[in-house]
């Protein structure tokens, strides 16, 4: 029975700590969020193009070598 109370206290303590941490979150405003979303999208597209070009180059290069 003591273990059950200890387990409940642990859950309550965890929930209180979680709520306290959730209140500390600083949410970005719409402008910041939009800028960050655009930056992530642009960087992802650029990296995708670089990887595609490298893939094409390796395929072409290995195709010439292993004919």
UniProtKB/TrEMBL annotation:
<keyword id="KW-0653">Protein transport</keyword>
<dbReference type="GO" id="GO:0009306">
    <property type="term" value="P:protein secretion"/>
</dbReference>
<keyword id="KW-0813">Transport</keyword>
<feature type="transmembrane region" description="Helical">
    <location>
        <begin position="37"/>
        <end position="58"/>
    </location>
</feature>
<keyword id="KW-0811">Translocation</keyword>
<keyword id="KW-0472">Membrane</keyword>
<dbReference type="GO" id="GO:0006886">
    <property type="term" value="P:intracellular protein transport"/>
</dbReference>
<keyword id="KW-0812">Transmembrane</keyword>
<dbReference type="Pfam" id="PF00584">
    <property type="entry name" value="SecE"/>
</dbReference>
<dbReference type="GO" id="GO:0006605">
    <property type="term" value="P:protein targeting"/>
</dbReference>
<protein>
    <submittedName>
        <fullName>Preprotein translocase</fullName>
    </submittedName>
</protein>
<dbReference type="InterPro" id="IPR001901">
    <property type="entry name" value="Translocase_SecE/Sec61-g"/>
</dbReference>
<dbReference type="InterPro" id="IPR038379">
    <property type="entry name" value="SecE_sf"/>
</dbReference>
<keyword id="KW-1133">Transmembrane helix</keyword>
<dbReference type="InterPro" id="IPR005807">
    <property type="entry name" value="SecE_bac"/>
</dbReference>
<dbReference type="GO" id="GO:0016020">
    <property type="term" value="C:membrane"/>
</dbReference>
<dbReference type="GO" id="GO:0008320">
    <property type="term" value="F:protein transmembrane transporter activity"/>
</dbReference>
């Amino acid at each position: 029975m003591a273990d059950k109370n200890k387990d409940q206290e642990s859950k309550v303590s965890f929930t209180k700590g979680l709520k306290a941490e959730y209140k500390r979150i600083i949410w970005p405003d719409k402008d910041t969020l939009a800028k960050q979303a655009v930056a992530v999208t642009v960087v992802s597209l650029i990296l995708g193009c670089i990887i595609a070009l490298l893939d094409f180059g390796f395929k072409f290069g290995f195709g010439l070598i292993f004919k």
